[in-house]
Design brief:
Elements (H helix, E strand, L loop, with lengths): L1 E4 L6 H8 L3 H7 L13 E4 L9 E9 L5 H7 L5 E9 L5 E2 L6 H9 L3 E6 L10 H8 L2 H18 L3 E4 L9 H15 L5 E6 L17 H7 L2 E4 L17 H11 L8 E6 L2 E5 L10 E3 L1 H11 L4 E3 L4 E8 L2 E6 L3 H8 L1 H5 L3 E5 L6 H10 E3 L3
Parallel strand pairs: 3-4, 3-16, 3-17, 4-6, 6-7, 7-8, 8-9, 9-10, 10-16
Antiparallel strand pairs: 1-2, 4-5, 11-12, 11-15, 13-14, 14-15
Helix pairs in contact: 7-8, 11-13
Amino acid sequence: MEIYVVKEGDSVDRIADSYGISAASIIFNNQLVYPYPLAVGQALLLSVGNASSGSYPAFVNGYAYPYIQQEVLDDTLPYLTSLSVFSYGFTTEGDILPPQIDDTFMIRSALSEGVMPILTLTPLGPDGNFNNLLVSAVVNNEEAKSNLLSNLLTTLTEKDFQGVNIDFEYILPEDRIPFADFVAETRAYLSPYGYQVSVALAPKTSDSQSGLLYEGKDYRLLGEAADSVLLMTYEWGYTYGPPMAVAPINKVREVVDYAVTRIDPSKIDLGIPNYGYDWTLPYVRGSSRARTISNLEAVQIAIDAGVAIQFDETAMSPHFQYEKDGLIHEVWFEDVRSYQEKFSLLPIYSLRGMGYWQIMRFFRPNWLLLQDTFQIIKD
């Protein structure tokens, strides 16, 4: 595979002729829409040789909600090692709360493709937000914890899940050790039945990092407690924050630099975002709200607005501004250049693999580049 950045005057046919490849392959790889307009600065993935798989073995996980379209799921599963169903909740007594939408089709589809279905356990409250008081109530109560583990095992067995991902966020600082103990106890309880346990970690850069997102997550303890961890290396640019890259590579590196000093790199999965944001300017803290968009939608916005896509060499991320209805917008998203930068970190740091948040929208260039870069591990 080769990455090509569109220049002024380019067309699909001209690019195809210059590389001696078919226009159809460019259209397919990059999900171009008839009549195949391009944006200056757009990154295209070109198939310039025989299809191949990379040599570095990598676990690839994708998170998905039960309302994922079957077609999107079917298109994505060949590139995954595991599929994390988001999500299962629980009560203060330790009773399991399944998703409101039946996830059976996801589990069956995954198993038929040789992909491990994973139960994602979250402390989401009725309002849909993470509830740290719910976490505290369970990890500090032996009866509730025992009930939760028993119910978890029953659900895993009955639903044919093959593992658990513990995604607890905003953990109270005083629950740092009880939470790590809970992860260790979950692993010890489920391991005899063949289930592995992973845990999602907020993107810390030091032991003493302040903030509710970080203080309850002890990298060393959790790295020892779980079979594997996911570094949530995304959301620097987020819905309520100022315009910036979702996963700037310089910030991602800072997290990985710290993580590998506390956790065995062979246990670490790198978080990968599969989306972008569209902000309306000027940004006003407390009232501005960015719109979540797909990577394909971002490129289409640039095409429709007739603006060039820029590339930030520090964040290694694409972005641009455009005007609509008299308002200026700023867009940051992911393309094959930004993904290539993130992929390069796995062999550099000897990481286990990666986890995508989330796979609800299919972005073929990413998956083709991933397949060309890694040997995807299958169960």
